[in-house]
Predict the structure.
Amino acid sequence: MQLTENTVSEEVVQQLAEYFSVLSEPMRLKLLNLLRDDEKCVQELVEATQTSQANVSKHLKVMLQVGILSRRSEGTSAYYKVEDPLIYDLCNLVCNRIAARIEQQAREFRDFSLANPEAVSS
């Protein structure tokens, strides 16, 4: 099968799916938020998330493998930082879209309650 301009290879689709799946885990989003301003050692991340070192390390490893994070060692400590700051642009786009949707839903609820005074007193 020959690829055309509109055809995307299975490899590209698979890599995209893997990248987005990394962001589908709440703990990874928490870790990214903690790493937003500065690198942190694993112990700092464990304390901040109040979870086990094994759990934190597992999630850091996944993000390291896809290139979102980088790692450096200092003595017996491992430090992680965000290697791809564009990840925050992506997160901001999604957050803004969700916020807009919630604001629209809130307007619809307010419009409904204002249009239906009986619904409020029932």
The domain at 1-84 is CATH 1.10.10.10 (Arc Repressor Mutant, subunit A). The first strand starts at residue 40 and ends at 41. Strands lie at 40-41, 69-74, 77-82.
